[in-house]
Amino acid sequence: MSDNSKDPLVYLIAGEASGDLLASRLMAALKDKTGGKVAFAGVGGATMKEQGFDTLFDNSELAVMGLIEVLPRIPKIMRLIGQVVNDIKAKQPDIVITVDSWSFSDNIHRRLRGVNIPHIHYVAPQVWAWKAGRAAKMASKIDGLLTLLPFENKYFTKYGIDTVCVGHPVVEGFISATVHNDFKKQHNIPQSAKILCVLPGSRHNEIRYLLPIFAKTVRLMQDKYPDLHIVIPTVAAVAKDVEKAVSSWQNTIVLPDIKDKTSAFAISDLALAASGTVSLELAMAGVPHIIGYKLSPITAYFAKKILKVKFVNLINIIADKPIIPECLQEHCTPLILFQNLQTLLEDKVMASEQRLKAKEMLSQIGYGSKQTPSAKAADKVLDIIAKHRAP
User: Fold this and answer.
1) What is the pTM of this model?
2) In which order are the strands placed within the sheet that holds 119-122?
3) pLDDT digit string (tens) for 116-127?
4) Using N-to-C axis directions, what is the helix angle for 17-34 and 373-389, rounded to 10°?
5) Does 57 lie in the same domain as 195?
6) 201 and 158, same structural domain?
7) What percent of the chain has pLDDT over 90?
């Protein structure tokens, strides 16, 4: 345990980009709450380095996706885990926090059992969706858990895990939808035009499976509403694929700069989106939307066997009812998507109800709260440190 007179030393381990962003925000919150009297060590990536983090090794060494890809890397990953554990024992931090990536973090916590340093995990594995048995196994490995969603706590507290819901990071990372007055003019969009925002995903396989379906949906929408314009915010990784796929679309602009996303939301009357965090962003921006998603038949078959949830959209999962229409697999067809979009565009009462109910669910993950999720997480971390330092 660190000397009580010294600034607390927080050891952070973020194995992937998502964890790196979360950890960097936690670092900023801890600095704010301690007046900068806090030190950090551990493993992270680019965003944490921007906070002045000196990483033991770059977390890209741990970022391997897929069973086939990870198998030859296992010996190296286990060596890196050993290096992290030895570094923790040498530095004797006040707390160890693993962020996301439970499959990797599990190995760290297992090796820290018996070491007199509190160690917690940030972002619960989705035991409510699959692998429920992980919750019980975690109880003997960690001293605390920070969750993102309000309904998650019950899965872990019943096993005696000190669990706190801090909220979803999307609520602090999203910039309120604003738009420059000349945005429509800049992109040659008539001021009176109706705008459909299309968000086909950020992965190559999503673009491959969804864009052909979305293309036919857009055609049906523009046949019905000739003045309809399409805006497609996307990310650099798939921008070229998206631009090529929609090159023949009418009245369509692709926005490859992520900074343009909030402006696109601000001018949109409704949206068609792939499942994911973007639905939360659309809800925060007040854009009525539907979800369309389709996996390969083989992947879908195994997903149905494994998953235990009724919905895929987080707003619907929190509410336990379909606030956001979900058109999945065999229901993800151009006609069904078109019918849902048409209803949402023409039924103002339905669109308004969706906005209100979605905002209610967002409030449960920190939207509108005086404290950000990172600030709440920092409070819990400092509380654990104080209790551990107490005589």
Assistant:
1) 0.83
2) 39-43, 9-14, 95-99, 119-122, 144-147, 163-165
3) 999 999 999 988
4) 70
5) no
6) no
7) 68
